[in-house]
Amino acid sequence: MPDTPLDVASADAAPDDVPAEVFxxxxxxxDVAGDVAGHLAADVLVLGAGVAGLMAARLLAGQxxxxxxxxxxxxxxxxxxxxxxxxSQPIELGPEFIHGHATETFALLGExxxxxxxxxxxxxxAISGVLVRPADAWEAAExxxxxxxxxxxxxxxxxxxxxxxxAADVPAAVTRRARSYVEGFNAAYAGQISAHGLxxxxxxxxxxxxxxxxxxxxxxxxxxxALAASIxxxxxVLLQTRVLRVRWQPGRVDVLAERGGRAVRFTAAQAxxxxxxxVLQRDPTHDHGVAFEPELPLRAALREKxxxxxxxxxxxLCDAPFxxxxxRDAAFLHSGDAPFPTWWTTxxxxxxxxxxxxxxxxxxxxxxxxxxxxxxxxxxxxTLFAREPREIAGHVRQCVIADWRDEPLAGGAYSWPRVGxxxxxxxxxxxxxxxxxxxxxxxxxxxxxxVAGALASGRRAAEQIRV
Length: 467
Description:
The chain is an alpha/beta fold. It has helices spanning 51-60, 103-112, 137-146, 159-166, 172-186, 195-207, 222-229, 277-280, 299-305, 361-365, 370-385, 389-395, 424-428, 451-466; strands at 39-41, 44-47, 66-69, 81-82, 91-92, 98-99, 116-118, 123-127, 130-132, 213-216, 236-238, 241-249, 252-259, 262-268, 270-273, 291-293, 306-309, 311-318, 332-334, 342-344, 353-359, 396-403, 414-417, 436-438.
């Protein structure tokens, strides 16, 4: 089983169905003039070609000249689909599911001709190698989470503190499940995550059928590819363009970037900052940090009140779906004591792919290195089915590991609010001096950490500029 780095999912820079000018690799002679090594002017600069930045650019491109600056050699940000030779379905190194009936996401799917399907929701626990569906366990955990309404933003506490104050009458098994869900799903620490922030997400989920989940037919990266294809000339997406410094004053933004080993200057009247939270939290001297002059007013709060959660995914491509001998309808499988506590199949589609998930504390406990993480994944499946690791390894043809810890261009998987930070995304949503606008999943409190939140934030930023 070969080791596979996270960047295995790097997509081709210019897919066949995207206009070539969208993916220009270097400024042409007409684009280069002025000081530094080159100078490109636009009406609006968008920093980052994840779906938040692409959505903003898509909506602005018809009225203004927009330049999207992206450090990677592809669009999509943390959406990374990887085609495996010989396999009909790609594997998703980043986001994989659509959580609930997210209005923004499904509207875009409809416009782009993309389709999604309901996934199987069956949840089972592994107890001594036997898969058991605990009666009403998930429902009881949901009822417990509904008590989060009692936590006010002005008297915010951690989820652990919430459990101590509001769950004394709840069976220990239910509180353990709720705590495991909060840490794993949110990639967070129960002793640090905001209980009020969780309640805001829970409210949104209740209103948008958040317990249902969907997958795209085909690769998830078709979504950002479709967004990029809709950005027409003279607006452009510039790949392999790493932002180093942003100087700004009311009505003017001056960006210094590195492109093809050269310094390039970009200027505009306004900018959408759609960089991941993990990048914004870094010191400007970091290899992948960005300096702002003057400093962003909320940058200190970004570091103190929001956190970037870690996730490690393990995708096992097997010789056959051996787990169906245990349970033909296996969908989501849980083993709390394993290094990878959660696994899922592709049901209702039947395939040879088994995916493991470790979020938050579970991810941080895993060893470093592809080989060591692969061993932890094999051991976890062995624990799940009470088999010998050697037997499980014999079924595995390839193990692809996506380790988002300290990922250079993102700094983690997705964000969550610390105690007292539930309102910070609202503050980030406000423009600064009609010049800097912010987008990204970390700027939408009710949809924090989601693709839908990123899309909604890009639309919000574009609408703020167009007013």
